[in-house]
C-alpha cells in the first residue's frame, strides 16, 4: 500500500501535479466531514459485497473475476422484478429485490462454476467472457424493451429505464446523510460470509476443496459441486451489489454508458482488490473495502484539485494487487523457512545457539 | 443479407478478417512462448492496452507510425520485466498477479489518455503495403498481399516461433523448463533466466499486439482492447500450445470480427441486434474452451514457480 502510494506520488509528479496537494485533497475528500465519510461508505458498499463474495470463491480455490457481469445480471433480475410488480409494499419489495438480485448473480456465477467443473474451462477466461456477454445483454435491454418510455417519446433515447417504483427505494438511514439500507446489508452479508466459511460444515467443505482438492475427493466430498456452489455464493453477493447500485442510486434506475463500463464503476474489479487487501478474510474485507471506497471518493476530489483523472486509483489498485500477491508468497516462504530452522534447532540439541530470526529471514528457501 | 454474398464484399471481409486476426495472433504467439516455459501471463490485456496507448500517443505526437510500433514493443518489454520480477523473483501467484497487471494497464492507459490527450483524436494509422507481383494476383492478392506491415510481421512470426521453439537450443531449454524445470536445472539450464527471456519477448509481443490494434483503428479509447488479450490466452489453449494452431484460432476470431463489422456497415444488423452480434466473440471463446478442454499436452510446469531443492 505504501509502495503504491509512493508510486502514485511519482506518477502525480510526472503528470505535473503537486503530490502533496493531490493527496491532501484526496484525504480531505474521503474523510473530511460526515458527508464525505458517508460517501466513502456508500462507495465501499458494492466493493464489500463483491469482495466478501470473492473471499468465498478464493477460499474454495477458484478465482472469480466475473464480478462485473454478476453485478449486471443481478441488477437486471431485480429491475425486471420491480418493473413487473411495482405496487408490492416496500417492506416486501426491497427484500424481494435483493433476493432476485442474488438469484441473478448466482445464475451468472454458477455458469462459470459449471463450466469449470463439468467442462474444464478455465474460470478466469470464462468469467471475463461472461462479463462481456452481460454488458451486451444490458445494452440490448436498455436500448430496446427496457428503455424509459419517456425517452422514446422525447426522442432523446438515453439508454436507461424509467424511474423505478419508489417502493423499491432502499430506505435512507437516520442521521441526515445519504447512507441507506444497502450499507447495512453489505456489512451483514460480509458477516454471513464469515459464518458460512468458518462456522458451518458447508464452509469447511468449501475450504477443504480449495486447500487440497485431492484429499477432499478422497474424503468423499464432491469438489466439482463445491466449486459450483462457491461460484453461486460469490455471484449472489455480486448480484446484491448490483441491487444496491440500482435501487440505492440517486436516479433510482438501471442505466448504462453504452460502453463497457456501464453503471458498475468497476466495482467487480475493485472488490477483488479489497478482498486481497483484507487477506481474503470476509471480516477484514470490511475495513479494506472502506479504505478503497474512500480512495475512490477521494480520487474525485483530487481530480478537481489537481486535474489528475481518477483513473489513477484504478492503476494504483492494480499495483496493490501485484504487491499484495507478491509479498504474500514471500511472507509464506519466510515463515516456512523460519519454521524449518526452528524444527532443525529442536532436533539437534547439541547446537546450543538459538537460531537468529534475522538469519532465518535471510536464509535462502 | 444478399448484399453480403457478393464477391467484392466477401473478399473485403476476408481481407479484414486477416487484418483483425493480427492483434490476436501477435498476443497469442507471445503467450505461447511464455506458457511453453511454464509461465501463465493473464496480464496480456493490460499490457496490450498500455502498448496500444503508447503507440497511439507516440504516433499522435510525432506522426511517425514506425516510432509508434517501437514504443508499443518497448512498453510491452518493460511490462515483461515487471511481470518477470513479480512472478519469478517474488514467486507471486501467476493468476492473480496477471489480474493485477490487467487492472493496472486498464487504469493507467485511461489515466494517461485522459490527461495527455483528452478528446479522442484520430491518427493516420498503418497504410497498406502491397507486395509486388503477389499483390497483383486476382482475389488472393487482394486478400493476402494488400495488408499493413504488422500483418506480414505477425504471420511471418508463426514459422519463426515454430522454429525457435522446436529447432533451436534455446527452444529446447524453453520446453525443458516448461515441462520439468528440475531436470533442466540439474543440467545447468537456468530456469529463471530462460523464463525472464520468454516473459520479456511474450510481453513485448503483447505490446506490439496493442500497437497493431491502435494503429489499425487509428484511435484510442478507454478499454480499447475489450477482451482481446484474454481471448488471446484462450487461443493458446485452442492452438494446443503450437504456433500453427494459434494462427488458425486467431483467423477464426479475426473472420468473425470482420463479419460482424461488415454486417454493421451494410446495415444487415442494426440497433439492438448489434448487441447480440457483439456477443459472438465472447460466446465463441467459451464454446472453443469447452471444445478443447479435454485437450492434454499443456506444459506440466505451467503456473508452478521453480524452487531449487523441492
Keywords:
heterodimer, A: 365 residues, mainly alpha, ABC transporter involved in vitamin B12 uptake, BtuC, 2 domains, 15 helices, 73% helix, disordered C terminus, B: mainly alpha, globular
Averaging pLDDT over every residue of chain B, what do you get?
88
**In total, how many beta strands of chain A?**
0
**Number of structural domains of chain A:** 2
Task: Supply the number of helical segments of chain B.
Answer: 13
| Number of DSSP helical runs of chain A | 15
Q: What's the helical proportion of residues of chain B?
A: over 70%
- Biggest sheet features of chain B: 2 strands, antiparallel
| % residues in beta strands of chain B | under 5%
Portion in beta strands of chain A: under 5%
CATH class of the largest domain in chain A: Mainly Alpha
Net shape of chain B: globular
Overview of this protein structure:
The complex is a heterodimer of chains A (365) and B (310). Chain A is 73% helix and 0% strand. Chain A has 365 residues and is mostly helical. Chain A has 2 domains: 289 residues, ABC transporter involved in vitamin B12 uptake, BtuC (Orthogonal Bundle); 58 residues. In chain A, helix 1 crosses helix 2, helix 1 packs antiparallel against helix 14 and helix 8 packs antiparallel against helix 13. The longest helix of chain A is centred in the C-terminal third of the chain and has 37 residues. Chain A starts with a helix and ends with a helix. The C terminus of chain A is likely disordered. Chain B is mostly helical and 310 residues long. Chain B has a domain of 203 residues. Chain B has 13 helices and 2 strands; from the N terminus they run H-H-H-H-E-H-E-H-H-H-H-H-H-H-H. A two-stranded antiparallel ribbon of chain B has the order 1-2. In chain B, helix 3 packs antiparallel against helix 9. At the A-B interface, helix 6, helix 12 and helix 14 of A face helix 4, helix 10, helix 12 and helix 13 of B.
Amino acid at each position: 500500500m505504501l509502495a503504491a502510494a509512493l508510486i502514485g506520488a511519482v506518477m502525480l509528479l510526472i503528470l505535473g501535479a503537486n503530490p502533496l496537494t493531490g493527496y491532501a485533497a484526496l484525504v480531505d475528500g474521503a474523510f473530511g466531514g460526515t458527508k464525505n465519510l458517508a460517501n466513502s461508505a456508500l462507495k465501499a458498499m458494492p466493493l464489500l459485497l463483491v469482495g466478501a463474495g470473492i473471499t468465498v470463491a478464493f477460499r474454495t480455490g477458484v478465482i472469480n473475476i466475473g464480478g462485473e457481469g454478476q453485478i449486471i445480471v443481478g441488477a437486471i433480475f431485480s429491475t425486471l422484478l420491480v418493473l413487473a410488480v411495482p405496487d408490492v409494499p416496500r417492506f416486501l419489495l426491497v427484500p424481494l429485490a435483493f433476493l432476485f438480485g442474488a438469484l441473478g448473480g448466482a445464475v451468472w456465477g454458477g455458469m462459470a462454476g459449471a463450466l469449470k467443473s463439468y467442462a474444464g474451462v478455465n474460470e478466469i477466461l470464462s468469467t471475463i467472457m461472461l462479463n462481456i456477454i452481460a454488458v451486451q445483454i444490458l445494452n440490448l435491454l436498455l436500448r430496446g424493451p427496457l428503455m424509459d418510455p419517456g425517452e422514446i417519446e422525447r426522442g432523446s433515447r438515453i439508454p436507461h429505464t424509467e424511474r423505478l417504483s419508489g417502493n423499491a427505494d432502499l430506505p435512507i438511514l437516520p442521521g441526515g446523510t445519504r447512507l441507506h439500507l444497502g450499507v447495512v446489508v453489505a456489512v451483514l452479508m460480509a458477516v454471513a460470509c464469515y459464518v458460512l466459511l468458518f462456522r458451518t460444515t458447508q464452509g469447511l467443505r468449501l475450504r477443504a476443496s480449495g486447500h487440497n482438492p485431492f484429499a477432499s475427493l478422497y474424503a468423499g466430498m464432491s469438489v466439482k459441486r463445491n466449486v459450483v456452489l462457491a461460484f453461486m455464493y460469490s455471484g449472489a453477493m455480486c448480484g446484491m451489489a448490483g441491487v444496491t447500485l440500482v435501487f440505492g442510486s440517486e436516479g433510482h434506475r438501471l442505466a448504462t454508458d453504452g460502453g463497457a463500463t456501464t453503471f458498475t464503476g468497476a466495482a467487480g474489479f475493485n472488490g477483488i482488490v479489497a478482498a486481497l487487501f483484507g487477506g481474503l478474510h470476509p471480516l477484514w474485507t470490511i475495513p479494506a473495502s472502506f479504505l478503497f471506497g474512500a480512495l475512490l471518493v477521494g480520487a474525485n476530489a483530487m481530480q478537481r484539485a489537481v486535474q489528475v483523472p481518477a483513473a489513477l486509483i484504478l492503476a494504483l489498485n492494480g499495483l496493490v494487487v501485484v504487491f499484495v500477491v507478491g509479498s504474500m508468497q514471500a511472507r509464506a516462504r519466510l515463515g516456512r523457512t523460519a519454521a524449518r530452522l526452528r524444527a532443525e534447532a529442536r532436533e539437534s540439541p547439541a547446537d546450543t545457539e538459538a537460531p537468529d530470526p534475522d538469519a532465518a529471514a535471510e536464509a535462502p528457501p | 443479407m444478399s448484399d453480403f454474398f457478393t464477391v467484392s464484399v466477401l473478399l473485403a471481409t476476408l481481407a479484414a478478417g486477416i487484418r483483425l486476426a493480427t492483434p490476436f495472433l501477435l498476443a497469442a504467439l507471445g503467450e505461447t512462448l511464455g506458457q511453453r516455459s511454464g509461465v501463465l501471463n493473464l496480464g496480456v490485456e493490460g499490457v496490450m492496452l498500455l502498448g496500444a496507448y503508447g503507440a497511439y500517443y507516440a504516433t499522435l505526437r510525432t506522426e511517425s507510425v514506425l516510432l509508434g510500433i517501437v514504443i508499443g514493443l518497448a512498453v510491452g518489454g518493460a511490462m515483461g520485466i515487471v511481470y518477470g520480477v513479480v512472478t519469478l523473483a517474488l514467486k507471486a501467484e501467476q493468476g492473480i498477479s496477471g489480474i493485477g497487471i490487467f487492472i493496472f494497464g486498464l487504469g493507467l492507459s485511461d489515466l494517461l489518455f485522459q490527461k495527455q490527450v483528452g478528446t479522442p483524436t484520430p491518427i493516420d494509422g498503418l497504410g497498406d503495403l502491397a507486395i509486388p507481383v503477389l499483390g497483383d494476383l486476382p482475389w488472393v492478392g487482394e486478400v493476402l498481399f494488400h495488408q499493413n506491415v504488422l500483418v506480414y510481421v505477425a504471420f511471418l512470426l508463426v514459422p519463426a516461433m515454430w522454429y525457435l521453439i522446436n529447432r533451436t537450443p534455446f527452444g529446447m531449454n524453453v520446453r525443458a523448463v516448461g515441462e520439468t524445470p528440475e531436470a533442466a536445472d540439474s543440467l545447468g539450464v537456468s530456469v529463471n533466466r530462460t523464463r525472464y527471456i520468454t516473459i520479456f519477448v511474450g510481453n513485448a509481443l503483447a505490446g506490439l499486439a496493442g500497437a497493431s490494434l491502435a494503429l489499425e483503428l487509428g484511435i484510442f479509447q478507454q478499454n480499447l482492447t475489450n477482451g482481446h488479450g484474454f481471448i488471446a490466452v484462450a487461443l493458446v489453449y485452442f492452438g494446443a500450445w503450437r504456433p500453427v494452431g494459434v494462427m488458425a484460432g486467431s483467423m477464426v476470431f479475426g473472420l468473425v470480427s470482420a463479419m460482424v463489422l461488415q454486417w454493421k456497415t451494410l446495415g444487415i444488423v442494426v440497433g439492438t441486434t448489434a448487441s447480440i452480434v457483439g456477443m459472438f466473440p465472447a460466446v465463441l471463446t467459451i464454446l472453443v474452451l469447452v471444445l478443447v478442454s479435454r485437450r492434454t499436452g499443456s506444459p506440466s510446469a505451467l503456473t508452478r514457480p521453480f524452487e531449487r531443492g523441492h
